[in-house]
Amino acid sequence: MKNLTVTLLVLAGLLGLAGCSGVGEGPEGGHDVSWYLHHQNQMQKESHWCKESADRSKLTSCKNVKEAESQALSYNAKKTVQSVKNDL
C-alpha cells in the first residue's frame, strides 16, 4: 500500500511539472520563427499576448514571434518594392 501511495505521489508531481514546460508559453507558444511565418493568424494571437505584459518579452516564444513579425514585414516590403518596379 505504501508503494502505491509513493508511486501515485511521484506521478502526480511529474504531471504537475509537465504543465510548467516552456511549450505552453502563450496561446500559440513553443514554436520557432519559421512556424510563425507560416501561421500568420497564430502569430498575431501570440504577438498580442506577448504585448499584454512587459515581462513576457523575455520568453522564447515572444522573441520568436517578434523576429517572425520583423521578417514578415521585411518580406512584404521587398515584394511591394518589386511590384512597384515592375509597374514602372
The residue fraction in helices comes out at: over 70%
Low-confidence stretches: 17-23
How do the helices and strands follow one another from N- to C-terminus? HHHH
The DSSP helix count reads 4
What's the number of extended β-strand segments? 0
**Major sheet details:** none
- Indicate the structural class: mainly alpha
**Beta content:** under 5%
Span between N and C termini? 82 Å
Compose a concise summary of this entry:
The chain is an all-alpha fold. Helix content is 72%, strand content 0%. Residues 17-23 have low confidence and may be disordered.
Overview of this protein structure:
Keywords: Lipoprotein, Signal. The protein is mainly α and 88 residues long. The chain is 72% helix and 0% strand.
Which descriptors apply to this entry?
single chain, 88 residues, 4 helices, mainly alpha
How are the SSEs ordered, and which strands pair?
Blueprint (H helix, E strand, L loop, with lengths): L1 H17 L14 H6 L1 H12 L8 H28 L1
Helix pairs in contact: 3-4
